[in-house]
């Protein structure tokens, strides 16, 4: 740390690009990454290594990791904000995964967004931690590979990670052939290009291998010493400084959780107030529409009443006119009867005319009577129309009184959001004096979260299998890489990173050393 940066072996050309990266990977990111900034930087490092394909990630897990990365960057999913195409410029999946399937960017975005929507309520640090929990179970996570040769000159790969030393076939970086956990190794040293590892059991012979360069030996030794030291330190009680850091981190996490809950409550109350306001505005609009319809009905009633009154007047006049004509016909009939008819022909003609006049008079009387009845009916309709007009006016008066009451309610409710900050008094009066009992309670809550996470992992695996089955039909088999094939074979056998290492370490150290030398 006392050496100047430019005194190290760095390129001389300008500009010089430096990458600030973690050298030693944690076994359990959730337990070991205490500070939020450390977690964030490590998340960015692991994400870049997965996208650059330095860490192999199967397609279905890549989609899930992408959804957590989107949650960390964009926050909760909102369909009104995060519309189709909002991930078009984002680099979320390894190119190998994209090329392996006959799927458009829109199809990938649809699948990522479907899982992104399920992460609602997770803060940035929580989404990043979920990303790291999944990434740390990938086979190549945290493994540094080096080309080596054993005594027979067989070319192999040495993998150094947080759990120990692993020997790989050069064509298979996923599944180690032999593993030596750090607690079985007593001493590591090198001379020139030859590396010597002494097992903890002194009865077992040391085993040796050769690296390609002396410089590589220095790096291997540094990684071994650092990982071995961290491996042993993790299995001891935390130092006072680490305990204090973890306690502070728990307090900070609890404070943030309470703050998030307070904000969530305020947001919920705001949304509830807005919903009530919208409901009142909708009700007000409905009342306005009802008032408008009542006004229109009143106007139609008034127009109908005027038309009926006019029609009744016309019918009455027609009835009077018909009555007058009937009277004239009666007079004409009397006049004809009074006239002397000299000849029989004239008498017959007169009788016929009298008969016609009588029939006409009868028809006039019937028509006059019908017109009179029609006039009475129209008067009755006019009376009913006026009664309807009176009821419409009464209903309009009722609606107007309701509308004024609703407006007063609306003004009082709309003012509600401005009073919401008063809830800050509650949170401001809270004390963050965490006692031992509080720490125990927080520890219990954290343990409970772990148990819940383990329960969710089964559901998560089912989701991954479902996505894998869904996109399997779109896979281009000819584009599968060697790592894809190896991963599928491991999956069909039920092998994972941890159970493979566990099986290998069940063998005796002596047999593993002998096996390494016979490779």
What does this structure look like?
The radius of gyration is 47 Å and the shape is rod-shaped. The chain contains 15 helices and 7 strands. The protein has 519 residues and is of the alpha+beta class. A 7-stranded antiparallel β-sheet has the order 4-3-2-1-7-6-5. Residues 443-484 form a coiled coil. It holds the Pfam family FERM_M.
Give unreliable regions as ranges.
405-436
Largest beta sheet: strand ordering: 4-3-2-1-7-6-5
Output the number of helix runs.
Answer: 15
Strand content: 5-15%
Largest sheet composition: 7 strands, antiparallel
Number of beta-strand segments: 7
Mean pLDDT: 81
The shape, in one word, is rod-shaped
Return the structural class: alpha+beta
- SSE string: HHHHHHEEEEEEEHHHHHHHHH
Rounded to an integer in angstroms, the radius of gyration calculated over CA atoms is: 47 Å
Q: Into which percent range does the helicity of residues fall?
A: 55-70%
| First-residue to last-residue Cα separation | 40 Å
Keywords: Cell membrane, Coiled coil, Membrane
Protein name: Neurofibromin 2
Membrane topology: Peripheral membrane protein
GO cellular component, one term: plasma membrane
């Amino acid at each position: 740390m006392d050496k100047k940066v430019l005194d190290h072996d760095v390129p001389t050309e300008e500009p010089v690009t430096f990458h600030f990266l973690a050298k030693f990977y944690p076994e359990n990111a959730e337990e070991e990454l205490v500070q939020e900034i450390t977690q964030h930087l490590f998340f960015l490092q692991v994400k870049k290594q997965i996208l650059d394909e330095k860490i192999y990630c199967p397609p279905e897990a890549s989609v899930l990791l992408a959804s957590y990365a989107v949650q960390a960057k964009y926050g909760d999913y909102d369909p009104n904000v995060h519309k189709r195409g909002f991930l078009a410029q984002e680099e979320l999946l390894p190119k190998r995964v994209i090329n392996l399937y006959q799927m458009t960017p829109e199809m990938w975005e649809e699948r990522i967004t479907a899982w992104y929507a399920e992460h609602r309520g997770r803060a940035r640090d929580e989404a990043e931690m979920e990303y790291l929990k999944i990434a740390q179970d990938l086979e190549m996570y945290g493994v540094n590979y080096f080309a080596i040769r054993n005594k027979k000159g067989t070319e192999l790969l040495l993998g150094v990670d947080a759990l120990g030393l692993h020997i790989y076939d050069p064509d298979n970086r996923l599944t180690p052939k032999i593993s030596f956990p750090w607690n079985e190794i007593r001493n590591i040293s090198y001379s020139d290009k030859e590396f010597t590892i002494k097992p903890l059991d002194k009865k077992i012979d040391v085993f040796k291998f050769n690296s390609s360069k002396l410089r590589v030996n220095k790096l291997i030794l540094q990684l071994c010493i650092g990982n071995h030291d961290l491996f042993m330190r993790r299995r001891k009680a935390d130092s006072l400084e680490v305990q204090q850091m973890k306690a502070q981190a728990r307090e900070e996490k609890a404070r943030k959780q309470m703050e998030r809950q307070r904000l969530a409550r305020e947001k919920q109350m705001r949304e509830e107030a807005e919903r009530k306001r919208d409901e009142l505005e909708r009700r007000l609009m409905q009342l306005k529409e009802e008032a408008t319809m009542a006004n229109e009905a009143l106007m139609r009633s008034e127009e109908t009443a005027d038309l009926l009154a006019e029609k009744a007047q016309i019918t009455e006049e027609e009835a009077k006119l018909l009555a007058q004509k009937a009277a004239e016909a009666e007079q004409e009939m009397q006049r004809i009867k009074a006239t002397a008819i000299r000849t029989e022909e004239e008498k017959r003609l007169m009788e016929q005319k009298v008969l016609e006049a009588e029939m006409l008079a009868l028809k006039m009387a019937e028509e006059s009577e019908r017109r009179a009845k029609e006039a009475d009916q129209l008067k009755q309709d006019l009376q009913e129309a006026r009664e309807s007009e009176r009821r419409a006016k009464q209903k309009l008066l009722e609606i107007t009184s309701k509308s004024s009451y609703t407006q007063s309610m609306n003004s009082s409710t709309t003012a509600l959001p401005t009073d919401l900050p008063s809830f800050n008094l509650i949170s401001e009066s809270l004390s963050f004096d965490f006692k031992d009992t509080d720490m125990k309670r927080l520890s219990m809550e954290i343990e409970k979260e772990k148990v819940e996470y383990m329960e969710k992992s089964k559901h998560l695996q089912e989701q991954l299998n479902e996505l894998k089955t869904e996109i399997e039909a779109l896979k281009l088999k000819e584009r599968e890489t060697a790592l894809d094939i190896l991963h599928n074979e491991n999956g069909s056998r039920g092998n994972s990173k941890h159970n493979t290492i566990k099986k290998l370490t069940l063998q005796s150290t002596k047999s593993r050393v002998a096996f390494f030398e016979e490779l």
